């Protein structure tokens, strides 16, 4: 029986393989199978470094452009020479190209560039797949001030020879960029002295640490940090002295202990922050930045003449016309520009709103604003809105102009029904009006700015002047400097302007449909 059962079992139909169409498949679906991922394996890969990036990649154009520049200011200090022992130096052409490409890519940190060398094809193409150390990059960025300035001028010379700079019309504008310092790092003299004391105590405590508890590397890093901190605190005391010399109250004067040369400035987008004022002169023909300067001044009015000087130093000629906003318009600037033969275009002050806030503080209604008083030149007097006369009273002389004062009789104003709106606080005298005896240059400027032609030129200002500012902040992401101190900050501003000009050159060349190979000198 057992044998018959075995035969019967053997005769049972074999189970069929399930298929997606099978009803049983739907009832009990099989587990899906995927390609395995093996992360334990070791693999070799062939890399054609030159093909890591496309033929028209900006890194190639930057490399070729930098290759056209005379880098002797950098190479003359290199100690490793042919035929002598020693480790070869990093090529300045490589380091310059890396920084320019990095800034144009919105990268401003040496550590970030070092990381990108390991994984980003553009940086790998530039370095030939080597990783460049962050310290080398960081030191190089601020090491050759004269060489960098010369580089900026050389870039301008190349753009000028391509006809991209005309000096016909130059726009000047300033932008505030945050310093590498926190707002709460500002201290008075007492605070700085306390910080110096605390730093000294810290040094003494570290000196007593047993040597076996610290590594050589940690000692070196700690010594460097102490040295830099000490230098910054000494520099903070010096900056404080400068502020006091400029008339700042000794008790109230404060400087940052992180970046002593930074100043608290008002930003256009609102708020105050430790910052530097970056001045740019842009040639209107193609938008090339032809001069850059960084100052500690919170306003722009004193930067116009130095801006024109920098343009002349960089290009050997003055601009024919300079256009700037109201922050640059002053009697001195108008006279200075005319004496230099530079046509200055700027907005006229709005007389109707001039001193509006002051009028409100004095309780004067806008119907009795200075502009509502009529000057009668034949009689040399003013007529007020109530028809009363304000004859000439006195004059006071300033450095570059004379103020003529006209005043109404005290009794006339005291009896006037409009006194409460016109001069509510005048108890001992009648209402007065000041008239400035203007220089002919200022009168010429005002007349010029009434013309439609000058107004049209001024309307073009914002687009040309503000484009580099926007690029630097939005594309290159330089909303805060990554270095400290006026000299280094000035160098970082130069780096981004060189980058801006080279990227502009690449864009203009591509825009004119010129063969790319020709543009980068391979045609
Ligand atoms: S207060 Fe004097 S100046 Fe003013 S409206 Fe009256 S009269 Fe004229």
Beta-strand percent range: 5-15%
Class inferred from helices and paired strands: alpha+beta
Sheet with the most strands, sense and barrel status: 6 strands, mixed
Tell the overall outline.
elongated
Q: Which small-molecule ligands are present, each listed once?
A: iron/sulfur cluster
What is the radius of gyration?
35 Å
Helices, by number, come to 21
Structural write-up:
It is a single chain. Helix 10 packs antiparallel against helix 11 (216-245). Helix content is 44%, strand content 14%. The protein is of the alpha+beta class and 523 residues long. The chain is elongated. The strands form 3 sheets. Strands 1, 4, 5, 6, 7 and 8 form a 6-stranded mixed β-sheet that branches. The chain has a 5-stranded antiparallel β-sheet with strand order 9-10-11-12-13, with no helix packed on it. A two-stranded antiparallel ribbon has the order 2-3. Mean pLDDT is 86; it is low at 1-12 and 513-523. The structure holds iron/sulfur cluster.
């Amino acid at each position: 029986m057992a044998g018959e059962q075995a035969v019967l079992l053997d005769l049972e139909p074999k189970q069929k393989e399930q298929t997606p169409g099978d009803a049983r498949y739907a009832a009990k679906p099989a587990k899906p199978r995927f390609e395995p991922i093996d992360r334990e394996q070791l693999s070799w890969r062939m890399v054609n470094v030159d093909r890591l990036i496309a033929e028209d990649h900006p890194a190639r154009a930057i490399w070729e452009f930098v290759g056209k520049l005379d880098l002797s200011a950098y190479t003359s200090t290199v100690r490793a020479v042919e035929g002598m022992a020693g480790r070869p130096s990093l090529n300045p052409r490589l380091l310059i190209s890396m920084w320019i490409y990095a800034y144009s890519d919105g990268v401003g940190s040496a550590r970030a560039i070092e990381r990108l060398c390991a994984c980003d094809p553009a940086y790998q193409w530039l370095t030939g797949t080597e990783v460049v150390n962050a310290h080398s990059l960081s030191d190089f960025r601020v090491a050759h001030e004269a060489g960098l300035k010369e580089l900026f001028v050389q870039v301008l010379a190349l753009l000028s020879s391509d006809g991209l700079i005309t000096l016909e019309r130059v726009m000047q504008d300033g932008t505030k960029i945050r310093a590498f310092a926190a707002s709460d790092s500002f201290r008075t003299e007492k605070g700085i002295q306390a910080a110096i004391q605390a730093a000294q105590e810290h040094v003494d405590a570290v000196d007593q640490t047993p040597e076996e508890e610290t590594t050589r590397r940690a000692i070196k890093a700690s010594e460097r940090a102490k040295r830099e901190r000490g230098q910054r605190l000494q520099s903070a005391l010096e900056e404080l002295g400068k502020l006091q010399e400029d008339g700042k109250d000794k008790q109230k004067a404060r400087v940052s202990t992180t970046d002593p040369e930074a100043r608290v400035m008002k930003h256009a987008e609102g708020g105050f922050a430790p910052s530097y004022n970056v001045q740019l002169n842009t040639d209107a023909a193609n938008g090339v930045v032809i001069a850059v300067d960084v100052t500690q001044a919170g306003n722009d009015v004193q930067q116009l003449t130095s801006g024109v000087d920098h343009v002349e130093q960089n290009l050997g000629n003055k601009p024919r016309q300079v256009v700037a906003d109201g922050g640059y318009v002053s009697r001195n600037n108008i006279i200075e520009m005319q004496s230099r033969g530079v046509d200055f275009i700027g907005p006229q002050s709005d007389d109707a709103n001039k001193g509006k806030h002051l009028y409100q503080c004095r309780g004067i209604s806008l119907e009795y604003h200075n502009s509502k008083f009529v000057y009668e030149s034949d009689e040399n007097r003013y007529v007020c809105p109530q028809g009363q006369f304000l004859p000439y009273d006195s004059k006071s002389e300033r450095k570059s102009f004379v103020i003529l004062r006209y005043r109404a009789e005290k009794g006339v104003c005291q009896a006037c029904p409009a006194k409460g709106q016109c001069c509510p606080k005048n108890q001992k005298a009648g209402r007065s009006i000041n008239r400035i005896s203007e220089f002919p240059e200022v009168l010429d400027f005002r007349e010029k700015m009434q013309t439609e032609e000058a107004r049209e030129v001024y309307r073009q200002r914002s687009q040309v002047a503000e484009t580099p500012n926007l690029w630097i902040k939005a594309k290159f992401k330089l909303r805060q400097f990554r270095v400290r101190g006026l000299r280094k900050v000035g160098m970082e501003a130069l780096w981004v302007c060189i980058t801006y000009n080279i990227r502009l050159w690449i864009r203009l060349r591509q825009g004119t449909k010129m063969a790319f190979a020709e543009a980068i000198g391979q045609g």
